[in-house]
């Protein structure tokens, strides 16, 4: 039973329309260069339109893996596909694994989360739905659905395995970078609690992360997520165009934020404090 007739799951015509226009998302994301506001994280500000951090994060990230799982269980039946190749199942599992961490574990591991503006929350949901539909429909029915078709796309076990290695390197690097940021927040919360017990008020304190990949760059968690989805695209092959679009869309979404964040670090701590660190691309920027 379709949730939205022709769209969830998407018909082939609608999926092809979506995947065509989804390639142009970087144009929309590039509008971030024109504004400095971004209503979440350290740039979050007081607003009546803010949603509590954990609630917003879970509800804006979970639609991705939920949508993909729904498509993977309904679209093959609609298309008369009785069983999908192992490649499709592995790629779907990797996507779900990433977003279960991001949507479920990540917010509860965070010592604290700043509120998220409803505009950012809404755009994130749209991104998740479009991305999961593009990737999910390719994996469920509109990409290769037999081993013969995979071979016709030039499938290679070595390339698939190499892509998985890159994916897991990115996933692990992303996790440990997140953990370094969490450790700073834990220390800050302990510091604030200590002052509160003494009856003192204390302003929020920030510091430049120094451990792990943060020794070399300011936003390794962004960079390692790009590494992760590069591996995903490599595993699926050049024909896995929704994965390519996902990677490019993430890059054009996150790069302006990293540039803005680099300026924030420079203004907050001074150039000397971040000297020798790249912002997000090692050896380049």
Q: Estimate the helix proportion, in percent.
A: 55-70%
Total strand segments: 2
Please tell me the overall pLDDT: 92
Structural class designation: mainly alpha
Instruction: Give, in spatial order, the strands making up the sheet with the most strands.
Output: 1-2
Number of helices: 9
Shape, principal axes of CA atoms: globular
Strand content: under 5%
Largest sheet: 2 strands, antiparallel
Give a structural overview.
- Belongs to the steroid 5-alpha reductase family.
- The chain crosses the membrane at residues 20-39, 51-71, 91-109, 118-141, 153-176.
- One of its GO terms (molecular function) is 3-oxo-5-alpha-steroid 4-dehydrogenase activity.
- It is found in: Membrane.
- 65% of the residues lie in helices and 1% in strands.
- By secondary structure, it is an all-alpha fold.
- The chain has one domain (12-269).
- Helix 1 (12-22) crosses helix 5 and helix 4 (86-109) runs antiparallel to helix 5 (118-142).
- The longest helix is centred in the middle third of the chain and has 41 residues, at 157-197.
- The radius of gyration is 21 Å and the shape is globular.
